[in-house]
Amino acid sequence: MVTVNNGLKFYGEYENIMEYKFTYNDNYEDFASGRVIYHMGGEPTFPVRLTLELYERCLQYSQKKKDIILYDCCCGGAYMLTILGLLKGDTISKIYGSDTDSKRLKLAADNLGLLTEAGLMRRKEELEAHYATYGKASHREALQSVDRIEKMLSKDIETEVFYRNVLVPGELSFTPDMIITDVPYGNMAEWSEGSGGINQMMDALSEICSKDTILCVCMDKKQKIQTEKYVRLERQQVGKRKFEIYRK
Ligand SMILES: C[S@@+](CC[C@H](N)C(=O)[O-])C[C@H]1O[C@@H](n2cnc3c(N)ncnc32)[C@H](O)[C@@H]1O
């Protein structure tokens, strides 16, 4: 239902105007997918500013403000995780990503490798070789981005990617402080290995969340979370997407 209140449109309980509370409309081109961060053709990308905003909002709810153990249970190529490792690394101690797709897991490992000096230098050598061969401006600009990103690496963050079907309950070797995930929707990948979709995921995840874990799920407008296992802390529509933040 759409209601109009003081000129602002509300869709049910979702506010349709995204107000960024913690992040600026900065230039994030150094982090564009495919520039330094690896990109696989056809892979979805997620806006950098929105990724940072979601993390900051979750951090507000989190008891812990540093040494965060961050997990994305549908990590794809770990674009979101890599952005957070690069730009919020001072508050993060460990990053875990899991997915069911082996190609995406390989991409995720390569991207999370960029959070280390050695991984970033490997990427620099690749880009230098591309620039020497093709002389493209895009490769030169990517090399300039590498130099800026290198200055941001303050510490090595421990990272791990692994296969896991998020629809199946089970234990993990760690308890995440924060889960931020962008689930399959539309042409942005489909649910695999299960038919229960987002609510099956929420049920399965409740087994690995502590009472302090903050969980942020991004989805399309059609997906509806109905759960009694969590308390919803906020929800917001952003263009075609919406996100909801939960705690048990
Ligand atoms: C929208 S993409 C995530 C993109 C990711 N956030 C990034 O930053 O690159 C959704 C991902 O969910 C994965 N997926 C689909 N079904 C899954 C399942 N049952 N368990 C775990 N991951 C699944 C897909 O392989 C896909 O990589």
Describe this structure in words.
The chain has 248 residues and is of the alpha/beta class. It has a domain at 43-113 and 157-247: 3-Layer(aba) Sandwich (Rossmann fold). Helices cover 32% and strands 23% of the residues. It has a seven-stranded mixed β-sheet, with helices on one face. Strands 1-2-3 form a three-stranded antiparallel β-sheet, with no helix packed on it. Helix 1 crosses helix 2 and helix 4 (117-134) packs antiparallel against helix 5 (137-152). The chain is globular. The two termini are 28 Å apart. The model is unreliable at 1-12 (pLDDT under 50). The structure holds S-adenosylmethionine. S-adenosylmethionine (SAM) binds next to helix 2.
SSE order in H/E notation?
A: EEEHEHEHHHEEHEEE
Q: Give the strand order, joined by hyphens, for the main sheet.
A: 6-5-4-7-8-10-9
* Percentage of residues in helical conformation: 25-40%
* CATH architecture designation of the domain at 43-113 and 157-247: 3-Layer(aba) Sandwich
Beta-strand content estimate: 15-25%
Termini gap: 28 Å
